[in-house]
Amino acid sequence: MPMIGIFLSAITQFVIGFIEIAIVLRIVLKMLGASTAAPFVAWLYETTGPMLAPFNGVFPTPSVSGGFVLEISALVALVVYGLVGFLINTLVTNATKPHEEKPEPPHRYPHDRR
Q1: 75-111 tens-digit pLDDT
Q2: Torsion of CA 14, 19, 23, 25, to 10 degrees
Q3: What gap in Å lies between CA 35 and CA 99, rounded to an integer?
Q4: Looking at beta carbons, which pairs linking 92-98 to residues 24 or more positions away fall under 8 Å?
Q5: 36, 37, 79, 90: which has the fewest C-beta neighbours closer than 10 Å?
Q6: Residues whose CB falls within 8 Å of the CB of residue 22, separated by 6 or more in sequence, listed in order
Q7: DSSP state of 69
Q8: Would you tell me how many other CB atoms lie within 10 Å of the CB of residue 18?
Q9: 75 CB contacts (<8 Å, ≥6 apart)?
């Protein structure tokens, strides 16, 4: 694969990896009932909020007393972002790989009866 393909593939994997890690952290923190008063938790919720916006309301978000929440939409987003990253990587790989030239088949003459 040419260098541009390797570069684009690495960038895609980094971005999708960051998004997925952030969403997994959000899921875990929501399940554990993390306080939004903590700066890291607030930052993470603010950062992942726009990433999850297209998936909000797709499924109900069950919660238990004490603030424990299971964001099913975040789980769906995790799967969708993973698939999108896979598709982008596949497209980049296929678009940047060198094309192999097919050899011409041997020329057959009418009198050649093999």
Answers
A1: 999 999 999 999 999 998 888 877 777 777 776 666 6
A2: 40
A3: 54
A4: 92/5, 92/8, 92/9, 92/12, 93/1, 93/5, 93/9, 95/5, 96/1, 96/2, 96/4, 96/5, 96/8, 97/1, 97/2, 97/5, 98/2
A5: 37
A6: 44, 47, 48, 51
A7: E
A8: 11
A9: 27
Q: What is the spatial distance between Cα 11 and Cα 80, in angstroms, rounded to a whole number?
A: 18
CB 20 within 8 A of CB 78: yes
How many Å from the N-terminal Cα to the C-terminal Cα in the chain? Answer: 40
Helix segments in 1-114, DSSP class H: 3-32, 39-52, 72-96
Contacts of 13 (CB under 8 A, 6+ apart): 85, 89
Count of alpha carbons within 13 angstroms of residue 11, beta-carbon side: 9
| Angle, vertex CA 54, rays to CA 44 and CA 33, nearest 5 | 35
- Residue pair 68/35 in contact (Cβ under 8 Å)? The answer is no
- The rounded distance, in Å, linking the Cα atoms of 21 and 7 is 21
Q: pTM of the full predicted structure? A: 0.77
